[in-house]
Recover the amino acids of this structure.
């Protein structure tokens, strides 16, 4: 469902290639790719990228049966490079938990030669909480100082504002009604930090999110968690469920020095973890980046890895890759870091969405 909704909003200009591997009547793997023709200065590069690897920050974990992973990857490379005429296949960013990463490299080298891994890198880390069987067990796993801090913060906020409470909104009607308030708080939070936030930076960000929420709500796989203090909303968490894993996608919380001192983010995270344990979830994927308050609450950090695969002897391929890399680095400095992140803010201009070519030319 996520890939289908993603394609609806971000598939324009690409060709869809959903590779399905079956062993007899049994489904053994699915790899959804979007094939993009990206201008590289001296021509175009046809690049097959896993769906959802652009625009929306997600940790990818391709659905593949271990018994047939090698055969599937080998066939996938044949289809993408030979039949679909792709110059490059981009795999990533995939989770460090993905067990077949090294197998992909072996498949590529066996089919295309030792030099077929044209680029490999580790992306910034992502955050993961592994959940025990009970909230009591989780709380006991925290350091003594952190347990004391959590109790103190909860006592302070309830003394000043009133009792803390959490509501889990799970139906499409409930979430749609609450969404404008969530978005306003989300936007204000990131604006206070000099950023745009999800709905400003991402083209079609609100339409994509609402469509995804509506689709996930039909199967009971989404929740907008709302935390109040004395009846006043102070935090939101947007969660998606898949199997026994929670995917924590978006957050919002009240802004201001007083709220920061009271530790609203820590308390909202505590409720999120406790509720996830009650649901029988085993882990929470909490997105890219390192955050101190997540670390204090028991997070671990794993690498995201990616590789670029191609036929090493293809005429002009290396020069196109070098040119596209130079274009991306130049745009990253001049457009994103200087203009989008600094000049627009100084001039008080509307940031608008991030330039789509900038995202699409990143390898």
């Amino acid at each position: 469902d996520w890939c289908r909704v993603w394609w609806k909003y971000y598939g324009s200009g690409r060709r869809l290639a959903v590779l399905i591997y079956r062993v007899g009547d049994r489904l053994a793997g699915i790899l959804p790719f979007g094939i993009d023709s990206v201008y590289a200065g001296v021509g175009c590069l046809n690049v097959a990228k896993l769906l959802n690897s652009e625009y929306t920050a997600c940790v990818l974990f391709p659905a593949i049966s271990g018994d047939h992973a090698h055969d599937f990857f080998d066939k996938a490379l044949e289809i993408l490079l030979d039949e679909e005429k792709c110059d490059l296949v981009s795999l990533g960013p995939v989770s460090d938990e993905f067990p077949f990463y090294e197998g992909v490299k072996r498949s590529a080298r066996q089919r295309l030669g030792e030099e077929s891994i044209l680029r490999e890198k580790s992306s910034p880390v992502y955050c993961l909480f592994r959940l025990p069987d009970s909230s009591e067990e989780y709380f006991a796993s925290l350091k003594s100082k952190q347990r004391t801090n959590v109790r103190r913060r909860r006592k302070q906020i309830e003394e000043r504002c009133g009792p803390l409470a959490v509501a889990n909104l799970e139906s499409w009607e409930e979430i749609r009604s609450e969404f404008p308030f969530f978005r306003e708080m989300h936007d204000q939070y990131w604006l206070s930090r000099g950023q745009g936030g999800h709905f400003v930076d991402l083209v079609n960000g609100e339409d994509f999110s609402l469509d995804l929420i509506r689709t996930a709500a039909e199967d009971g796989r989404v929740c907008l968690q709302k935390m109040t203090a004395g009846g006043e909303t102070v935090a939101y968490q947007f969660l998606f469920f898949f199997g026994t894993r929670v995917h924590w996608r978006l957050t919002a919380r009240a802004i201001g020095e007083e709220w920061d001192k009271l530790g609203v983010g820590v308390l909202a995270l505590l409720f999120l973890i406790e509720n996830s344990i009650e649901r029988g979830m085993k882990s929470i994927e909490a997105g890219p980046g390192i955050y101190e308050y997540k670390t204090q609450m028991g997070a671990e950090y794993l690498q995201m890895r990616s590789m670029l695969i191609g036929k090493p002897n293809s005429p002009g391929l290396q020069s196109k890759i070098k040119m596209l890399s130079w274009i991306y680095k130049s745009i990253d400095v001049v457009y994103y870091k200087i203009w989008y992140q600094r000049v627009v803010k100084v001039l008080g201009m509307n940031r608008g969405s991030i330039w789509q070519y900038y995202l699409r030319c990143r390898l």
